[in-house]
What we know:
The chain is mainly α. It has a single domain, classed as Four Helix Bundle (Hemerythrin (Met), subunit A), CATH 1.20.120. The protein is built from seven helices and no strands. It has helices at residues 3-20, 38-58, 73-88, 107-129, 137-147, 151-156, 172-179. The N and C termini lie far apart (36 Å).
Amino acid sequence: MSENLRLFTQAVYAFDAVVRRTTGDQWSAATPCEGWDARDLLQHQCAVLNGVAAMAASGQMARPTPPEDMSDPQAVWTETRDNVLAALDQQGALAQPGPFWFDKATIDDTIGFVMWDATTHAWDLAQATGQEACLDDDLVQAVYDVVAPMSDMLVESGRTGAVIEVGEDAPILDRYLALVGRNPA
């Protein structure tokens, strides 16, 4: 298993833990992502992972593909999670050459970047539903290290909010959240 796959899988399961504790009316709760409720956020995360699964299965560029029916969020999530992890578990899937999203050279490089999305949205969904995100500091540090060099591009493209200033001695989760425009307070 590559380090990127290990971290990506950890990020997916961090998101999974929050999804599994989200029920009923919580799916209509507003998230820190402007204009998205919890169901919209889940649909977005599934779209991203569906795109990763399609690229891993085909070796070809693929777009994020949102699920059409979000009436059963838990079932949609379970299917999406299982599909992406199965696609990445195939012999040679990680080494397939791209370029893929963000001009990443391989599927392994792509998931090494995309892990930031699941990590960030695990926190977003937890905030929306009054849960603890329980994000591991090592995962958050790895995601911070990936996102920091691309922060300007992510802000300019609207993928994150503007960076919020926090002290350099703040916990890594607070520094990461501030980097992607979330108020850690």
